[in-house]
Amino acid sequence: MKPTLVILAAGMASRYGSMKQVEGFGPTGETIMDYSISDAVKAGFGKIVFLIRQQFEENFREKFAAKLDGKVNYEFAFQELDMYLDGAQIPEERTKPWGTGHAVLCSSSKVNEPFAVINADDFYGFDAFKRAADFLTNECDEKTYAVVGYNLMKTLSDHGTVNRGVCALDEKGDLAGVVERIGIGLKDDKVMVEDGLEPQELKRSDVVSMNFWCFHPSVFELYEKDFKAFIGENISVPNSEFLIPEVVDNFIKNGGVVKVIPTSAQWFGVTYKEDAPAVQKQLNDLIDAGDYPENLWG
User: Fold this and answer.
1) Helix, strand, or coil here: 63?
2) To which H or E segment does residue 278 belong?
3) Mind listing the pLDDT tens digit for each residue in 203-261?
């Protein structure tokens, strides 16, 4: 059975200022998602699930139907504020989605096979998809998940600080935990963090998660259980988010193994408006090198 790719595209892009998920960066208007889908299909994924807000379904269908029809199976799943709340009332001041962990849970109705989860607005590179597909096909089970690990230095922005999930590894090189560090940037040639936690300086060799996860479908039960607990404690905190690593940490604590899949790929993405020209240049460089055709879908 071929693995499925779930693309998280329901976020509101607050720092970027527009709906960057469907913005064209490639020479013929390709979104970053187009490159991820193309890489995934080439790597052996059999289905794409777009996790979006329902109000954007028409917009997404318009954008992707002509490109994908006949090339890969795709479906839409929706993340809405009232999903999986078990009757709890949404506070009036709550506007943003419940976070990436809730997004994964909301994709459960469309996924029955080992699957990967990625962000819509991150470019991960073919090598990452190939390694993820190999893991999902050959190693993934109820007790073994994975995360694609990037070198921290390949994920920084020239236009401001970034937030990254810094991976702690155990003695076998498997994931011991992920700590979300806020405000990472280069300062006097050192990688410094502004969040007040220790260490304030990170190593250039640190491995970070860019939200490229590989799961067995049994993980949905864990997300449902942990989201219930999260809502019980945090429903009245306006900006609280239920994030993917929270469930992963609990899985590890309960004896699960999360492999760290290394990749040589260069990550890039659009955290800030100012990142857009650099992303266009990086895509053009890859096209010039022959990694992608000028018109991705012909």
Assistant:
1) helix
2) helix 276-288
3) 999 999 999 999 999 999 999 999 999 999 999 888 899 999 999 999 999 999 999 99
SS3 label, residue 88: coil
DSSP reduced 3-state for 171: coil
User: 10 Å Cβ neighbour count for 143?
Assistant: 12
pLDDT in tens, 114-140: 999 999 989 999 999 999 999 999 999
What the block records as the tokens of 49 is 């699930």
The span from the CA of 293 to the CA of 298, in Å, is: 8
Peptide bond into 238 cis (omega under 30): no
Q: For the beta carbon of residue 202, count every other beta carbon within 10 angstroms.
A: 18
* Region of 84 on the Ramachandran plot (φ > 0 left; ψ -120 to 50 alpha; else beta): left
Domain boundaries, the chain: 4-150+208-288
> pTM for this one?
0.92
Q: What is the pLDDT of residue 21?
A: 59
Angle at 292 between CA 287 and CA 293, to 5 degrees: 85
Tokens of 63: 């954008």
CA distances from residue 101 to 113, 121, 237, 250 in whole angstroms, order as listed: 18, 17, 16, 13
Query: How many residues make up the chain in this entry?
Result: 298
CA distance 75 to 49: 5
Q: What share of the chain is helix, strand, coil (3-state, %, to 5)?
A: 35, 25, 40
The CATH T-level fold of domain 4-150+208-288 is Spore Coat Polysaccharide Biosynthesis Protein SpsA; Chain A (3.90.550)
* pLDDT tens string 74-110: 999 999 999 999 888 888 888 888 999 999 999 999 9
pLDDT band, residue 15 (cuts 50/70/90) = very low
Pairwise CA distance, residues 58 & 275, whole Å: 27
